[in-house]
Amino acid sequence: ELFWYDDPIYFRRPIEGGAAGAGHRRVLAFEGANYHTQLWLDDQPLGQHEGGFTPFAVDVTQQLADGAVHGLTAVVDSRHHPEAVPTDYTDWHNYGGITRSVWLVDLPPTWIADWFVRLDGEMVRVDVELAGAQPAGQAIAVALGALRLEGRTDASGRVSLAARRPRRLALWSPEAPVLHDLAISGGGDAIAERVGLRTIATRGREVLFNGAPIYLRGISLHEEPIGPVGKRRMTEADARRLLEEAKALGCNFVRLAHYPHSEATLRVADELGLIVWAEVPVYWEHIRYDSAHTLAL
Predict the structure, then answer these.
(1) Burial call 261-270: b when 16+ CB within 10 Å, e when fewer
(2) Residues of the chain falling short of pLDDT 50
(3) What is the C-alpha separation between 145 and 168, in angstroms, rounded?
């Protein structure tokens, strides 16, 4: 009965911080809530976020320090207006509410805030950024398949590492979607992921994939699971079922319209061998592009 509801809705639940380690921080992280979100813990405002398809987080370290049970409230307003992105008129159903997972994240005193792995010609390049108590001068270790890279962060907590790609570090392609185990450690934190290495470029009207021309065969899809009941909440199983249908049709790429989709969808596309065209949530000619508020989004 809420399918056509387009107004604020209140989500409430108890939340318990528990005992945090010395110097650790607690962050409440939302993967997505549409469209304007305001957060409270008990009767204290935590913050707000505008945008239905981008993640956001608030630091709740001080509020949860005593380990007591608190009341978390999220007010998610799905109403759109001419200065919203997307605007108040679209030709697709713009589901409201909390549409992706919410996490209470425990961060060590110094943590990995960002990382980027890419293939630049024959060079593998890795950028890592630390944040927190002591991000500068920290040892960083990267393992990508059989490739090992090491370095230290600069005064801003960043380090850029590079090495020539070993031949045994195979390239990713739609025909052979090879994914390599990635591990990054530094500052008392660590991440583990699986990534593919590929290059995309243009030459005139041609698209070059790993240096060779490719003909893109794809479809456009929304973040909606297959089934009789409409919803936006996508599990990994939902994403797999949807993308496997695209693969069965002979697609080698998908256009994720008209906004950033969930990380689960991107990971499954990598695994199945589907190139992804990802979009920012800017759509339709009615958007107020002359508005400073709109441009700030």
Answers:
(1) bbebbbbbbb
(2) none
(3) 9
